């Protein structure tokens, strides 16, 4: 487990694979199956996963990878998702999308095209079906101190 800490956009940049890293397609869904999708990313382990201690990450239990929007494809239920956002360090500019049926937190993303992480979805790795959560290479981020 890594204990490297970083802030802001460097969190996204530091998790991105090099151009030569092969990408694989992972199937994901919320708990009840209303929302299903695929995500292209490097294989696990090998893909750095962010574990952050800020209020929203710790409450949702997020384990996040940052993938360009085009690497995240809905196969069902996109229109069913609801979004939560709140004032605070991100000034309400980050949306947190979840399934209203089972409550699963699926992903977060900037709701402002010019803001932190725009162009990426922060995907909750806990929703990916082929990932062994015990094998992950975690990058610990001290979001609580931002
Ligand atoms: Zn659901």
TrEMBL record:
SUPFAM superfamilies membership: Mss4-like
Domain CENP-V/GFA: 26-146
Keywords: Metal-binding, Zinc
Record flagged with keyword Iron: no
GO MF, any single term: metal ion binding
Region (Disordered): 1-20
Gene3D superfamilies recorded: 2.170.150.70
Pfam families documented for this protein: GFA (PF04828)
Family of the protein in this entry: Belongs to the Gfa family.
Protein name as annotated: CENP-V/GFA domain-containing protein
């Amino acid at each position: 487990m890594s204990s490297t800490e970083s802030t802001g956009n460097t969190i996204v940049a530091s998790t991105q694979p090099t151009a030569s890293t092969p990408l694989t397609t992972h199937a994901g869904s919320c708990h009840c199956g209303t929302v299903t999708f695929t995500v292209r990313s490097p294989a696990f382990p090998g893909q750095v996963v962010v574990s952050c201690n800020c209020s929203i990450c710790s409450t949702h239990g997020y384990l996040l990878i940052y993938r360009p929007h085009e690497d995240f494809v809905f196969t069902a239920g996109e229109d069913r998702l609801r979004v939560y956002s709140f004032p605070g360090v991100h000034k309400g500019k980050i949306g947190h999308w979840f399934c209203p049926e089972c409550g699963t937190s699926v992903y977060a993303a900037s709701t402002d095209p010019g803001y932190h992480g725009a162009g990426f979805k922060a995907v909750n790795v806990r929703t990916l079906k082929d990932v062994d959560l015990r094998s992950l290479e975690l990058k610990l981020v001290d979001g609580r101190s931002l």
